[in-house]
Design the sequence.
């Protein structure tokens, strides 16, 4: 859970998910907070933490790029929030592979290239890396995709 400050953190922890390493006291704390837990072994702790950093920090970086690009064309960032929420909901319902849409998922390299040319050069590396990752994710889908 992201804990932006103590007050918000205290409220966010109730009912949340907790990674525990077999500590009985930790399990009791999770229970007291009406939380849910899963066990993370010492050998998997770094990979688990990397997933958490990606889920929070990397997502915030991507949303920061949306915020900058929206501002550069005088659009409110809030206009993108329904799209962002729908994307997260689709991942929850379908899994990341099936929820992926857009030009990289379709293999539409011309649109991706137009996007890159339209971006400030400082924004291009992040867009390029994520587009390449989207292509990889799209190509790993084992069942036929519907219209993306």
Sequence:
């Amino acid at each position: 859970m992201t804990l932006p400050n103590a007050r918000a953190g205290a409220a966010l922890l109730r009912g949340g998910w907790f990674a525990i390493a077999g500590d009985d006291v930790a399990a009791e704390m999770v229970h007291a907070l009406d939380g849910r837990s899963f066990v993370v072994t010492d050998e998997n702790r770094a990979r688990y933490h990397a997933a958490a950093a990606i889920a929070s920090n990397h997502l915030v970086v991507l949303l920061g790029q949306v915020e900058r690009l929206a501002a550069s064309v005088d659009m409110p960032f809030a206009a993108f929030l329904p799209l962002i929420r729908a994307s997260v909901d689709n991942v929850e319902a379908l899994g990341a592979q099936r929820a992926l849409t857009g030009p990289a998922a379709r293999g539409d390299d011309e649109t991706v290239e137009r996007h890159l040319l339209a971006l400030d050069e400082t924004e291009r590396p992040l867009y390029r890396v994520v587009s390449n990752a989207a292509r990889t994710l799209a190509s790993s889908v084992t069942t036929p995709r519907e219209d993306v």
About this structure: Strands lie at 17-20, 36-39.
